[in-house]
Amino acid sequence: MQLTHRIAQPADSQLYFDWANDPDTRRQSFNSAPISFDTHTAWFTRKLTDANALLLLFENETGEPVGQVRFERGPNETVIGISVDAKHRGKGLASQLIERGCTVCREQWGAVTIHAYIKPENRASARAFERAGFVFSHESGKFGVDSLVYKK
């Protein structure tokens, strides 16, 4: 599948909200409670202007959004997050989004080390990150629960 990407825009807020509240996405998130629209809107608006945040929206060849990859740059690490639209899951797109997203991230921020924090039971996500070149690092309680940490 031919994918293109662009920086997220204010008009993408509803799409990101829908992806964030997808039942499978919530189940795999470290905080699995649904996100209110007001909370999401405030977060999304902040991230669009945050120099330490990079939100990438990926589309297929027909311009249909298929997923997003976001990066949060902190003082000691850059953390990646990803979601794939429910109707495009199971097609191997996640690893493509991760690889392309990491390339864009490093073009923008230089040779940063990128960490992915994944719940141990989320094997599909772990496999996608492994296919994208991430290597298992260690277990961490960073988000209040054990997580698999992958580095690239």
Question: Could you characterize the architecture of this molecule?
Answer:
- It is a single chain.
- By secondary structure, the protein is an alpha+beta fold.
- The chain is 35% helix and 28% strand.
- It has helices spanning 13-20, 23-28, 37-49, 93-109, 123-131; strands spanning 4-7, 53-59, 65-73, 78-84, 114-118, 135-140, 147-151.
- Strands 1-2-3-4-5-7-6 form a seven-stranded mixed beta sheet, sandwiched between helices.
- A hairpin with a 5-residue loop joins strand 2 and strand 3 (65-73).
- Helix 4 (93-109) packs across helix 5.
- The longest helix has 17 residues, at 93-109.
- It is globular, with a radius of gyration of 15 Å.
- The two termini are 24 Å apart.
- The model has no long low-confidence stretch (mean pLDDT 89).
Give a quick set of tags describing it:
5 helices, alpha+beta, 152 residues, single chain
Give a short synopsis of this structure.
The protein is an alpha+beta fold and 152 residues long. Helices cover 35% and strands 28% of the residues.
Q: Which range best describes the helical content: under 10%, 10-25%, 25-40%, 40-55%, 55-70% or over 70%?
A: 25-40%
Low-pLDDT segments, ≥5 res: none
Indicate the proportion of strand residues: 25-35%
- How much is the average pLDDT? 89
Total number of β-strand segments? Answer: 7
Number of separate helices? 5
Please give the order of strands in the largest beta sheet: 1-2-3-4-5-7-6
What topology emerges from the helices and strands here?
Layout: E1 4-7, H1 13-20, H2 23-28, H3 37-49, E2 53-59, E3 65-73, E4 78-84, H4 93-109, E5 114-118, H5 123-131, E6 135-140, E7 147-151
Parallel strand pairs: 4-5
Antiparallel strand pairs: 1-2, 2-3, 3-4, 5-7, 6-7
Helix pairs in contact: 4-5
